[in-house]
Prior knowledge:
Strand order of the largest sheet: 2-1-3
Order of helices and strands: EEHHEHHH
Oligomer: single chain
Amino acid sequence: xxxxxxxxxxxxxxxxxxxxxxxxxxxxxxxxxxxxxxxxxxxxxxxxxxxxxxxxxxxxxxxxxxxxxxxxxxxxxxxxxxxxxxxxxxxxxxxxxxxx
Length: 100
């Protein structure tokens, strides 16, 4: 089960992650197989750790860790939605961290 920010729970849905990754990787030439492997890696980590419930924030962090090594532009796009940047300063700070 996935614990959402609003306190609700829903069943883990790999398609929701894929949809977010596809939006983040528009025009980035990332093979769908790479995105599927990334999601499978997240699922495997959750299964291996016997996690019954996970927060959507934790899932987002797991995806971001993996996406960073795939494509930095897609990473920033995904992070902008997942982290819900409030202003350009938060966005700029994330970009600064990437360049260090």
